[in-house]
Design brief:
5 strands; 23% strand; alpha+beta; 146 residues
């Protein structure tokens, strides 16, 4: 039986959910969330350095679309890793993108699953859409008696 978890992305009133069916322990998930937060930060910094401010502000203005994009970033990480390493070239002052290389299996879902052991929450600043913090809580389910 796997250790299941949900990852909740929150920015203001907007929420996106992801589910992981196995290896949901903090020892497995927190290092991946750290890589994920760094990937989002790198993407935002790179976009701001290479595009006009109005374009960047327009792209990040719709919170729901931004969170959907960030969800795709974690769920479809191999495609994003390839895109970010080949298409987005950093300037001389920026560090190169480090692929997340996530080992876990994440999927987008529409809410909190009833069988999870951990819930991870990632909070984003409303204006900049950058990761402000992430944390987790262990879910204690009621014991079933026969």
């Amino acid at each position: 039986m796997g250790t299941r978890c949900n990852i909740v992305l929150k920015c203001g009133d907007h929420v996106e959910y992801m589910y992981r069916h196995y290896d949901g322990y903090p020892d497995s998930v927190l290092p991946e969330l750290d890589k994920y937060a760094k990937a989002i930060r790198w993407y935002g910094d790179n976009r701001k350095a290479t595009h006009p401010r109005q374009w960047v502000d327009h792209c990040f203005a719709d919170t729901a679309k931004t969170l959907a994009f960030y969800t795709d970033l974690l769920v479809k990480h191999p495609a994003w890793d390839k895109y970010m390493t080949t298409s987005l070239k950093p300037t001389k002052s920026q560090a190169p993108y480090e692929p997340m290389q996530l080992d876990g299996k994440y999927e987008k879902t529409n809410g909190i699953h009833g069988d999870i052991d951990y819930q991870y929450t990632i909070l984003f600043y409303e204006k900049s859409k950058r990761v402000s913090t992430y944390f987790y809580k262990q879910i204690v389910r009621d014991a079933v008696t026969a």
